[in-house]
Design goal:
The complex is a heterodimer of chains A (260) and B (305). In chain A, 33% of the residues lie in helices and 39% in strands. Chain A has six helices and 13 strands. In chain A, strands 2-13-12-4-7-9 form a six-stranded mixed sheet. In chain A, helix 5 crosses helix 6. The termini of chain A are far apart. In chain B, strand 1 and strand 2 form a beta hairpin. In chain B, helix 7 packs antiparallel against helix 8 and helix 8 crosses helix 9. Chain B is globular, with a radius of gyration of 19 Å. Classes of the chains: A alpha+beta (260), B mainly alpha (305). At the A-B interface, strand 5, strand 6, helix 4, helix 5 and helix 6 of A face strand 1, helix 3, helix 5, helix 9 and helix 10 of B. Chain A: Pfam families: Alph_Pro_TM. Chain A: This is TIGR02186 family protein. Chain A: Keywords: Membrane, Signal, Transmembrane, Transmembrane helix. Chain A: InterPro entries: CHP02186-rel_TM.
């Protein structure tokens, strides 16, 4: 789940930011999320999260006209270990052929930025901070050649983009008066429950000058949670209940219609 | 009307699911089949995970066959003896199906295998039904010729099985192994494909076992009822994919659809009904064949590690 190399890289860049900040201190970044808890229960059709906040110069004044920080917001779901299978045509039939496993595929990933990421930062910085779908650190398991790995990673991203679980909207962040920024990120109804992290990056001249993290928890509650627990903890009785329900409904419908 | 499915983990339009249930219920009333062969692929097409679709469709078929089974029981249209043997086979079959399911999942070919099963089973049954129904429909319209109804007789293979029992209601003196094996086969398919197997069972009982027509439909409903119940239990215990909310929505639609279908059925010519059913079965098979040979819906599939 945690990649030591990545942490180290971040640490090093963090140090370099600190040393720079000593000369020209960090801007002040105050992020907030419209809700820190998303409750999945009956009628849940997805949620709209508003990630907003303020950005100020290090001395607490407004960002001067003529210059502006770029804001990138990344909302990331829990990391999952998955196996990805690819279908190939064999003997005239599409069957599952190659497969690869990833140790840390996020269940959800959404990036919102004020400008296209490629214009804000260079590839190296984007890779370090995982800014963008092409820079996701999926941590493949086992040795397969990089080209094939790329193909699988692209396949996964395309699949999840199609189902609304991954997205990258490079004009979703609006900054008003150079101070207030806001971005809207939609969670589809098929989101995985768990802890989500929202990271906000203030970027100036291709360098990440400030970042802040906050958490969003997606939880299942009420009847839905009860059903899920019941089906796992008391599988036998759950099955019996489902059987009883179907027999009862079939029988009562027969009664109801026959009596008319 | 948005409804969140707690096991499938997604929101669906409840009305769409109820209508889908009603459509398959209508079919079950019209043709005396459970309609699972249509529910499962349509649910998958709608975006429900395949395992959840198959597991929940099984309980819908239970609901659809209950009232029919009761009606036939009142009329004495069930051979409990042969039905019991088939149920025993069917329960064993669902167990085998569960093992196969896990084995194929481990091999990473479960979706491909289910697809192939659909094409092969529905394709062959559809062709057999169509070949039988087409001459009947058109001979009825042109002139009343055509071969006379063949004398009821069980398949020679059945006769070669050892150990014979007398099944009075069906008018048979055959080995109980034949209905047992038939039950096993249908049980496996029910577990893997989420179908009740009525469209498979009725012709098999008529033409392979040679049962008397009066008890065929009732006994097949009896068998389907118990085997789909076993399937639901098996799914609840192994795949954990039974979504009661989804099942309840499907049931609301299908039990009412079934009643409407039964009314329609009494006014329609049976051979036309059989031809329509054959067309439907073939259409589903063709749709599956396209995904298998021409272009799959998804090149990549994700499974948890």
């Amino acid at each position: 789940m945690i990649v030591p190399g990545r942490i180290l890289l971040r640490f090093l860049t963090g140090l370099s930011i600190l040393s720079v900040a000593a000369a020209a201190r960090e801007p002040i970044l105050v992020p907030e999320i419209s809700q820190h808890e998303v409750v999945v229960r009956q009628g849940f059709t997805g949620a709209d999260l508003l990630l907003y906040g303020a950005i100020l110069e290090p001395d607490g004044t407004r960002v001067g006209t003529g210059r502006a920080y770029d804001i990138v917001v990344v909302l990331k779901g829990p990391l999952e270990a998955i196996t990805l299978r690819e279908k190939r045509k064999k003997l005239g039939m599409w069957v599952n052929a190659e497969s690869t496993s990833f140790r840390s595929a996020p269940a959800f990933y959404a990036l919102a930025s004020s400008r296209p990421v490629s214009q804000i930062v260079d590839a190296k910085t984007a890779a370090i901070y995982e800014l963008g779908l092409e820079w996701l650190q999926l941590s493949p398991i086992g040795a397969i050649d990089p080209q094939q790995q790329d193909q699988f990673a692209t396949g996964l991203v395309e699949k999840r983009v199609a189902s609304g679980l991954y997205r990258q909207d490079e004009s979703a962040v609006t900054i008003s008066e150079g101070v207030l920024y806001q971005a809207r990120i939609a969670l589809p109804s098929s989101v995985t429950t768990g802890n989500y992290t929202a990271e906000t990056f203030a970027i100036d001249d291709g360098r990440v000058v400030a970042s802040a993290t906050s958490e969003v928890e997606v939880v299942k509650r009420g009847f839905e949670r009860a059903v899920e627990l019941f089906s796992i903890q008391q599988a036998f009785w759950y099955g019996l209940a489902a059987v009883a329900l179907s027999v009862f409904m079939g029988w009562s419908a027969g009664r109801l219609f026959a009596s008319r | 009307m948005d409804v969140y499915l707690p096991i499938a983990n997604l929101a669906v339009n409840g009305l769409v699911i109820v209508l889908l249930g009603a459509l398959t219920g209508l079919l079950s009333g019209l043709f005396g089949v459970g309609g699972g062969f249509l529910t499962t692929p349509l649910l998958i097409f709608y975006g429900v995970p395949p395992t959840v679709a198959a597991a929940s469709a099984a309980s819908q078929v239970t609901g659809a066959s209950v009232s029919g089974a009761f009606a036939h029981a009142r009329r004495g249209g069930i051979d409990y003896q042969i039905g019991g043997v088939m149920v025993v086979g069917g329960v064993v079959g669902t167990g085998i199906g569960a093992v196969l399911f896990n084995l194929l999942s481990a091999l990473g070919q479960i979706d491909v295998a289910i697809n192939i099963l659909y094409v092969v089973v529905l394709g062959s049954v559809g062709i057999i039904m169509a070949r039988e129904a087409v001459p009947q429909v058109f001979s009825g319209r042109l002139a009343r010729f055509g071969k006379p109804p063949s004398k009821r007789r069980h398949h020679p293979l059945v006769a070669s099985l050892p150990l014979r029992w007398r099944f009075y209601r069906s008018g048979l003196y055959i080995s109980p192994l034949a209905p047992l094996l038939l039950g096993v086969a249908v049980g496996v398919l029910t577990m893997l494909m989420g179908i009740g197997g009525g469209f498979l069972l009725v012709p098999a009982m008529l033409f392979i076992l040679g049962m008397s027509a009066q008890v065929v439909v009732g006994t097949s409903l009896f068998q389907i009822l118990f085997v789909t119940m076993a399937t639901t239990m098996m799914h609840a215990l192994t795949t954990r994919a039974v979504d009661v909310v989804l099942a309840a929505l499907l049931l609301v639609g299908s039990v009412s659809g079934a009643q409407v279908g039964t009314r329609f059925a009494s006014n329609a010519r049976p051979e036309v009904l059989r031809l329509v059913l054959a067309g439907l079965v073939l259409a589903v098979a063709a749709r599956m064949a396209v995904g298998l040979t021409f272009r799959p819906d998804e090149i990549f599939t994700v499974v948890p590690l």
